[in-house]
DNA sequence: ACTGGCACTCGCTACAGTCGAGTGCCAGAG
DNA sequence: CTCTGGCACTCGACTGTAGCGAGTGCCAGT
């Protein structure tokens, strides 16, 4: 229960040393590397208490201590101070993102940047369509029975889909269709479109109705319900950093999880009003990731949140550093989006 | 030099057994599992010759033999018969690809399919823009000084880019611009556009020239020169299959290579008239992949080739099976593209 | 409440010995 | 000339033993 200040200091020291050295840390080494002002024996007693409370554990009887997931949690919640980014890092972020020409480019650069700065796996969700507004819809005739539907969202995201029309539609009608859908849908949230789309069908002049129905179906099915979310990933090579000591010796489950878009979305897509989320080991809902930790946050222009981004690494990671980096990158990207 | 038929049969047996068991194979086991019709001693003599010629080697003095890259090469070139796909596999391919609604979808499904069937890492290049023809160019005004340029290629690929205009351009002029670029460029190969684009600028009426210049720059820079090629990847989790025995114990270099688009393009993008290419271990130009083999081929509607696809795995892979799968998938995708 | 001391645990390393798979070579048979 | 059986040899894998040392828990003393 009562964890006095020194015990907390000991826990902090253990976490820091273990993260740095990747080896179980013993009482003697601890008093040497940190100014705790007490003897190893005293530290041992504190350690015994910490172990009893489940914050640290011993891999083997004759080894030092290692933080448990619970220990990391306490560390993150109460013991770590935010580690301010170095000017060099700030500059790197700015420089890296400044050159982006495109939304795709922004996302791409961001994910690489995150991976590089944290030396871990980075995940970035494209601005969610559900949270975007329609800026423009374009219909491009490919043949008399085929249209390419292009949707441009206010976040800069562009999606396209081929539409197979039930019957040939002359060029003039395509113009009408384009005008209609734009009039009705521009400015609305994609998540709010279903009723609007229905109205669109109902209000169409009869000879346009079949085409409009197909068009609407595609609009709803693919743009709203399906593809919906896209994800960018980078830094998987960083998983091999710890020489397989992290992740309980097998990258398999991690790599598998990273291949599933759904899983990734779960990881970083659940954007809550809260600013930043840290999930440590067991706290992950996804079984395959029980050996990993995830630091994630939402991003977007101003206070709005249009998507998530995050970083995945071993539970034994530099939490303060990672948190600072993720937060900073998210803010920069948000500012960048706000400019457009 | 003279490798008589039996020696070749021995080599084939060694490759097959080693691929299957992942363990060095000895003379005794060989005669047991294959009907070679001779005694272990004879096989040993043959093995000695094969080793001298560099087709196999011994990991340790008291171990069995393992094929060398050169051995695999000989096996692929002269000893393996094509392994026909099982009907189940054929059906899987058809079913998997049939549901595709979109080019993106096709590529996405293809890469997953390849990874699943071969149980290795799969790479698919999107239809190369350089090899595509322009079907349509669309300009969507975002603001008075911003246009969204959308290009639709005849392969179904769609690319977009934001264009920052040097000065505001009224809506009417946008229409003119659109007409002009479409008149000039539709139907032409992207790789042939540079001169056409130049002509476009020269022939523009003066007041459109600045806008046209910017537009052309973007067109060339981003669509032709930069993004250019896109790549889809799947199955990285399969790298962990061999329990790190493959790949000389470290996935690091492989994962690193797979993160570089440029590298991937080198892998599968160099599409030659030849139908299918197998690069074994050392034969790879990319240092990081010296421990891996790559089976790649081009694909496209009919005889045209619009992109590449391939599979990467340990040198110790099932070449006949992989080759058959890659070839079959590429053909199906080609047919699918031809239908559009 | 902290400290020094001490006995104890147990993983790691080194070393020796055994086992066995696999080889190379050779003499003899076909 | 080719193949075979036999035999001695090599060397990695595995086992068991022993010593080392980091680290602990506990206790008596300040």
UniProtKB/TrEMBL annotation, chains A, B:
<dbReference type="Pfam" id="PF08220">
    <property type="entry name" value="HTH_DeoR"/>
</dbReference>
<dbReference type="InterPro" id="IPR023120">
    <property type="entry name" value="WHTH_transcript_rep_HrcA_IDD"/>
</dbReference>
<dbReference type="GO" id="GO:0003677">
    <property type="term" value="F:DNA binding"/>
</dbReference>
<dbReference type="InterPro" id="IPR021153">
    <property type="entry name" value="HrcA_C"/>
</dbReference>
<keyword id="KW-0678">Repressor</keyword>
<keyword id="KW-0346">Stress response</keyword>
<dbReference type="InterPro" id="IPR001034">
    <property type="entry name" value="DeoR_HTH"/>
</dbReference>
<dbReference type="InterPro" id="IPR036388">
    <property type="entry name" value="WH-like_DNA-bd_sf"/>
</dbReference>
<comment type="function">
    <text>Negative regulator of class I heat shock genes (grpE-dnaK-dnaJ and groELS operons). Prevents heat-shock induction of these operons.</text>
</comment>
<keyword id="KW-0804">Transcription</keyword>
<dbReference type="InterPro" id="IPR002571">
    <property type="entry name" value="HrcA"/>
</dbReference>
<dbReference type="InterPro" id="IPR029016">
    <property type="entry name" value="GAF-like_dom_sf"/>
</dbReference>
<keyword id="KW-0805">Transcription regulation</keyword>
<feature type="domain" description="HTH deoR-type">
    <location>
        <begin position="17"/>
        <end position="62"/>
    </location>
</feature>
<comment type="similarity">
    <text>Belongs to the HrcA family.</text>
</comment>
<protein>
    <recommendedName>
        <fullName>Heat-inducible transcription repressor HrcA</fullName>
    </recommendedName>
</protein>
<dbReference type="InterPro" id="IPR036390">
    <property type="entry name" value="WH_DNA-bd_sf"/>
</dbReference>
<dbReference type="Pfam" id="PF01628">
    <property type="entry name" value="HrcA"/>
</dbReference>
<feature type="domain" description="Heat-inducible transcription repressor HrcA C-terminal">
    <location>
        <begin position="104"/>
        <end position="323"/>
    </location>
</feature>
<dbReference type="GO" id="GO:0045892">
    <property type="term" value="P:negative regulation of DNA-templated transcription"/>
</dbReference>
<dbReference type="GO" id="GO:0003700">
    <property type="term" value="F:DNA-binding transcription factor activity"/>
</dbReference>
């Amino acid at each position: 229960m009562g964890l006095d200040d020194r015990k907390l200091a000991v826990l902090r020291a253990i976490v820091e040393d273990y993260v740095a050295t990747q080896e179980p840390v013993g009482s003697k080494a601890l008093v040497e590397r940190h100014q705790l002002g007490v003897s190893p024996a005293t530290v041992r007693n504190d350690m015994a208490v910490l172990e009893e409370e489940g914050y640290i554990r011993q891999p083997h009887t004759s080894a030092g201590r290692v933080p448990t997931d619970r220990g990391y949690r306490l560390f993150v919640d109460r013991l770590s101070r935010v580690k301010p980014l170095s000017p060099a890092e700030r500059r790197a972020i700015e420089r890296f993102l400044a050159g982006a020409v495109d939304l795709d480019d922004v996302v791409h650069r961001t994910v690489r940047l995150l991976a590089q700065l944290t030396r871990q796996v980075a995940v970035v969700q494209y601005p969610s369509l559900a949270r975007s507004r329609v800026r423009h819809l374009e219909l491009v005739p490919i043949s008399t029975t085929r249209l390419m539907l292009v949707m441009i969202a206010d976040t800069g995201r562009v999606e396209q889909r081929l539409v197979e029309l039930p019957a040939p539609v002359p060029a003039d009608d395509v113009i009408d269709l384009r005008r209609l859908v734009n009039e009705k849908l521009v400015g609305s949230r994609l998540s709010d479109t279903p009723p609007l789309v229905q109205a669109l069908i109902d209000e169409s002049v009869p000879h346009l109705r079949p085409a409009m129905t197909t068009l609407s179906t595609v609009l709803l099915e693919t743009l709203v319900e399906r593809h919906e979310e896209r994800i960018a990933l980078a830094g998987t090579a960083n998983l091999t950093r710890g020489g397989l000591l992290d992740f309980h010796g097998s990258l398999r489950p991690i790599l598998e999880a990273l291949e599933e878009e759904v899983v990734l979305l779960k990881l970083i897509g659940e954007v809550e009003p809260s600013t930043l989320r840290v999930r440590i080991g067991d706290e992950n809902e996804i079984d395959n990731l029980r050996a990993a930790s995830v630091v994630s946050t939402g991003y977007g222009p101003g206070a709005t949140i249009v998507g998530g981004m995050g970083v995945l690494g071993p539970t034994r990671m530099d939490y303060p550093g990672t948190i600072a980096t993720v937060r900073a990158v998210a803010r920069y990207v948000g500012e960048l989006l706000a400019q457009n």
